[in-house]
Amino acid sequence: MSDFLRDYLTVGIFGLTGVALVGLLLGLGSLLRPTRPQPQKYINYESGVDPVGTGWGQSNVRYYIFALLFVMFDVEAVFIFPFATRVDAYGWFGLIEMGIFIVVLALGLLYAWKKKVLRWV
Amino acid sequence: MLDLVWLVPALPLAGFLILVVLGRRMGEPGAGWLATAMCGGAFVASAIVMAGLIGEQGENRRHLLTLFEWMKVGGFRVEVGFLADPLSITMALFITGIGTLIHLYSISYMHGDPKFSKFFIYMNLFVFSMLMLVLGSNMLVTFLGWEGVGACSYLLIAFWFSKDANASAGKKAFVTNRIGDWGFMCAMFLTFATVGSLDYSVVLEQAPLIAPATATAIALLLFLGACGKSAQLPLFVWLPDAMAGPTPVSALIHAATMVTAGVYLMTRVSPILTQSYDWAPSIIAWVGVITALFAATIALAQTDIKKVLAYSTVSQLGFMFLAIGSGAYVAAIFHMITHAFFKALLFLGAGSVIHGMHDEQDMRRMGNLKKYMPITAATFIVGWLAIAGVPPFAGFWSKDEILLSAYEKNPALWFVGLVTALLTAFYMSRQVFMVFFGEERWRDADHPDAPEPHESPWKMTLPLVVLAGLATMAGILNLPFGNRTHFLERWLEPVVGESEHTVTAAASAQIGLAALAVAGSLVGIAVAYRIYYQRKMEPVEPAIMAQGWKYDTSIAAFMGGPGREAFEATATFDGTVIDGAVNGVATLVRGSGVHLRKVQNGFVRTYALGVAVGVVALLAYFLSRVTF
Amino acid sequence: MLASLWQQLSDSPVPIDSVDLAWAGLAPVMILIGGALLILAVDSLVPRRLRPGSYALATVLLAAGAMVAAVPLWQRVQDAERGPFATAAGAIMVDGFSVFATFVILSAVILAALSFDGWLRREEMDGAEPYVLMLLSASGGVMMASANDLIVMFLGLEILSIAVYVLAAMHLRKITSQEAGVKYFVLGAFSSAFFLYGIALIYGGTGSTNLVRIATYLSATVLGDSGLVLAGLALLLVGFGFKVAAAPFHFWAPDVYQGAPTPSVAWMASGVKVAGFAGLLRVFYLAFSTYRLDWQPVIFVLAVLTMLVGSVLAVVQTDVKRMLAYSSINHAGFILVAVQAATAAGVQAALFYLAAYTFMVAGSFGVIAVVSRKGDIGTSLDDYRGLSRDRPVVAFAFALLLLAQAGVPLTSGFFAKFYVITAAIEAGSSTLAIIAMITAVISSYVYLRIIVAMYGAGDDVPAPRTIPLPAAAGLALVISLTVTMSVGVFPGTLASLAERATPVLIPESDPGAVDPSGVPPGP
Q1: How sure is the predictor about B545, in pLDDT bands with cuts at 50, 70 and 90?
Q2: DSSP line for B6-67
Q3: Which residues of B touch C234 (CB under 8 A)?
Q4: A61-114: CATH architecture
């Protein structure tokens, strides 16, 4: 067996031990604890308050759209900040590239705006 | 002169193109005359080429005309070209000759049909495709023609597709032929892989170098293709149904020309057949002779005038394959030609009867038509005597050649062939007596005022008379009186000479066999005379024979039952195992009180499961190949 | 402050590796992306709605423009002196293969755009989105076909796929379209993850994601432990298999094809598949040809499964769209047969098949788009009864396209199948060739069923109805039919183009390869 796989052997043993431990503890617990089923025990836990509706309850789709827009424009910062720190190194090439990047994003925002996505109804 | 060979297929093609554009404007009968003229022109062109070939001797008696390079891919090159040699020109000559007569006949037969010009478009396209098939210089061009004639046949069978049965008959022909085509294509690929070319000139020259196993595979795959096109067991089911098309179509395509394409193909590749294991030709011979017997027994009990002829065609094609299998290629071609004459004659005669009887096809409602349709009756009787094998009519000579070779191959083959010949004489006599003799039966309780039959116009009877002459005289082509009278054999020698089986039987034995064959025919005719003319014996027509030994229905039942179930089962696998898992998930989920909408999520989960299984399988396989 | 920035930008040396870009080589992709953005901008900025059909026209013009831009590329790569070249630091390869695939993908864009026009008007949803999405998706496809680096391949794959997910879900009022989009998206994301993981494993095994370097490394080094590379290959195959709908990664295809808007399906079945196969061939045939003996058997099994599933399951369908979905799976299996050969002839056969198939399938789905009724419904077999009476020309064209798909001679489909089978036999895979032909026979029954339904007569033919045929859809039909039939009669041209469309690997040490402008590279 190659060294590479031997390294993974450790991981494998670790994983197996973990699974065995969980099984052991849960098994012991189920042997030791008293079993008294009550309907209240099967209610979803929601910060200690009585839950409203089922677990499959739907929320307004607008949340998702805003969340998506936020993620999009948040992620672009990941590109822009490192770029800004090295702007002198990239020179004109970098500036133009970043300009295109931002224009494309702005176009997306414009489109979303035009499609009235930004209005909360 | 030989270079004119391109004209042979070009004329019908031109006719086809002109009719596509102008057909509807030319209307009736102009379109029909144009198509006939084009076909006739092709006949003249073939005759000129043939004259050119006669001028050459031995090995020179072949001519290759390459038109253009069709495609070239790596080492694979196909040219569109024509090979004019005795075999192909003989085929071209009788295709165009009979084709012209049948075109002429159709002008009258299709009179008043709303799709008159379309009919001739298809007919010219058919003649063109058939000529491509026989003249093609390589297997791919032949295959092209092969598919082309199939397509035309399909279109023409379903010509009156408003009748539901016709459409389904067309469909059946299509599907059955696809099975055969599959064999042809496999054979082509195998040939190319072995020889590296599809040109007949190369393939046949190198045939003796092909390993016997490969040669056997190629030959049998081609034979599968031939079985589809030439309606042999087990693929013959489509031909009887194909009679749903107009009668001239039955005569041209389903009796004289297209169905013999398989025989042509096997003759063309005879060197490959020679190179294969001995049992390969035996298989062909046995398939042929069993088909011949099988179809003959079915023909005994048919009541539709065209169905009898259809089964008889299947049976006669079986004879040709018997000849191929026995190595008697010349006899096969000889019988093909004589059969084309007399069977086209019989079909056209039947068409004339149907026409004269105002679209009646049931023989039980005919009788004594000789009084009303004298020309049709006389010519039909010639056809009958020819197919029954009564000397000196054409069928006797060709069938005799086949039976002789079959006898030398295996007496058992000869015996089955002899019985079939007897049956042939019997069922054909039955037909003649039922249709043309006896009492007039067209007026009965159900049809109190059926119109009186009448003779057909000259455009229909002229082809009958010509064909009757040919059916009488065609035996001259290849008389068994010594080498000098074997005209056809000497003519075809450059093509099949090396593969041809040489008859070794003594002259006395040959005469004896011929005498037996004639006796068999006469017995068949005599029995039929007793039963159907004198009515002194009870006819024996078991229902199972009338239903074609239930072959067709069993196949339909299989395809409708177990065959379809096999397909369904696969679908059920998709449906049950996969959807079952889904439904299982769905039921679980529904238990938790979720709407149907969530079931769709279940679907995706299952699909993802499928992907995951695939991933695991791929990983498992690839990792099993890890080298440590 | 601006002045100082100006100063900085102008003066500073460039310590970062600057990348030479052969813009001409990227022109088709740039035109597609730029055009898509332009359409989007116009759609957002112009206050009034444009004349209906403007966006379709723009899309067709853009695709045609990209084709025009690709013509000099083709001449260039065929030129013995200049030849194929890599650009963008060896991440993009412009060779005959990529240019050929570009042409096919662009043809698919044109056909689908033409089909979209009338369809969108009928569904009363004229807008720029489908065209923008299709152009973007096509740019991803072209990127995949010319990717010389697994990362670029993945980028292309994602650009291609995400746009197609949206295209599938585009019919907002139709619940099955939404369902199709979600299904495609979830499963697509699932398979993309495998693909990405495969790239990671291959990087781990070979130390590069560049196809040239991978190939060089693998041919020069005997790996002590090939596990990583093999596992990576398996996962890459999952990604490609999903995109081209090869069994057992095909499950999405029938549902998605049935639910998605028909013109989107035309694009999915043609352009997306071409891109997927182009990527598959590039990676497996070129970069991993040393591992041929490992992946060939797998492709063999996938091809058999795919062809069987595609043909057998098509037989029991009653919905024409679904039938063609399964038949497109069968076609994918056929192309896999060519891939399995792993020879130059196999690549050529695959390209020929893809080109011929694109026109057949885009034309067929174009017909389905025309025959369906408002709401994108009416695709069951019964809806095709009597079509020969209501729209004889459309019925005839559809029949021809179906016959081409069945592989009847004198159509491009025949030669497509013919080349594939020949390549397989030359490569010694006769078993596969025989299975392929059996499935071709089975699936010809499916096409026949549709034809019989169109031409059949009897009691079950519904009353005549008027089927509007938009001009653009008619044009698409004419184009696809013309190509299908003319390639069927004269296959030589396309075959020789496909023959010259060979994919190549150019080692980076080749100085002329990276910089095509003729300027010698700097020190």
Answers
A1: low
A2: GHHHHHHHHHHHHHHHHHHHHHHHHHHHHHHHHHHHHHHHHHHHHHHHHTS-GGGS-EEEEE
A3: 615, 618-619, 621-623
A4: Up-down Bundle (1.20)
CB proximity under 8 Å: B 21-80 to C? 69-74, 76
Q: Is the pTM of this model over 0.80?
A: no
* Cβ distance of B622 and C294 shorter than 8 Å: yes
What are C69's two structure tokens?
């831009």
Distance, in Å, from the CA atom of B613 to the CA atom of B570, rounded to the nearest integer, reads 18
Average pLDDT over residues B569-589: 48
Measured over the CA atoms of residue B162, residue B164, residue B166 and residue B168, the dihedral's sign is positive
Q: Two tokens at B50?
A: 């043939």
Q: Specify the pLDDT at position B627.
A: 64
Q: What pLDDT shows up at residue A54?
A: 72
The full set of domain ranges for chain B reads: 1-137, 162-277, 280-542, 579-624
Q: Say if the Cβ atoms of B74 and C238 lie within 8 Å.
A: no
Alpha-carbon gap, residue C165 to C204, rounded angstroms: 31
| Per-residue exposure over C470-491, b if at least 16 CB sit within 10 Å of its own CB, e if not | bebbbbbbebbbebbbebbeeb
Which ranges of B437-486 would DSSP assign to H, the alpha helix? 458-473
Task: Tell me the sheet residues that pair with B76.
Answer: B73
Q: Cβ distance B291 to B314 under 8 Å?
A: yes
What's the CA gap between C92 and C87, in Å, rounded? Answer: 5
User: In this structure, are residues B594 and A56 in contact, taking their beta carbons and an 8 Å threshold?
Assistant: yes
Separation of alpha carbons C355 and C484, rounded Å = 10
Neighbours of B350 (CB within 10 A): 26
The C-alpha angle with vertex B513 and arms to B508 and B518, in degrees rounded to 5, equals 125
Are B176 and B235 spatial neighbours (Cβ–Cβ below 8 Å)?
A: yes
Q: How far is C507 from chain A (nearest CA, A)?
A: 27
pLDDT surpasses 90 at C366: yes
HEC sequence for B531-580: HHHCCCCCCCCCHHHHCHHHHHHHHHHHHHCHHHHHHHHHHHHHHHHHHH
CA dist B363 to B238, B294, B438, Å? 22, 22, 12
CB contact under 8 A, A54 and B593: yes
A58 touches chain B (CB under 8 A): no
Question: pLDDT at residue B590 above 50?
Answer: no
Give the residues across from C85 on adjacent strands.
C94
Which segments of B410-550 does DSSP mark as H helices, in order? Answer: 411-436, 458-473, 487-496, 507-528, 543-546
- The beta strands (E) that lie in C3-109 are given as 85-87, 92-94
Looking at residue B478, the DSSP 8-state letter turns out to be G
Residue C214 neighbours by CB under 8 Å, 6+ apart: C150, C202, C206, C208, C287, C288
- Any C CB within 8 A of B20 CB: no
Q: Mutate which of B143, B559, B622 to disrupt the C interface (most C C-beta within 10 Å)?
A: B622
Measure in Å the smallest separation between the Cα of A42 and chain B Cα atoms: 12
Nearest to B81 by CA among B202, B187, B193: B202
In this complex, do A1 and B598 lie within 8 Å of one another by their Cβ atoms? no
ipTM of model: 0.84
CB contact (8 A) between residue A88 and residue C227: no
Lowest mean pLDDT among B434-443, C49-58, C375-384: B434-443
B315, B295 Cβ separation under 8 angstroms: yes
Cα–chain-centroid distance for residue B77? 30
Report the candidate in A95, A88, A82 with the shortest Cα–Cα distance to residue C9.
Answer: A88
> Who contacts B99 (Cβ-Cβ below 8 Å, separation ≥6)?
B39, B42, B43, B123, B127, B130, B252, B257
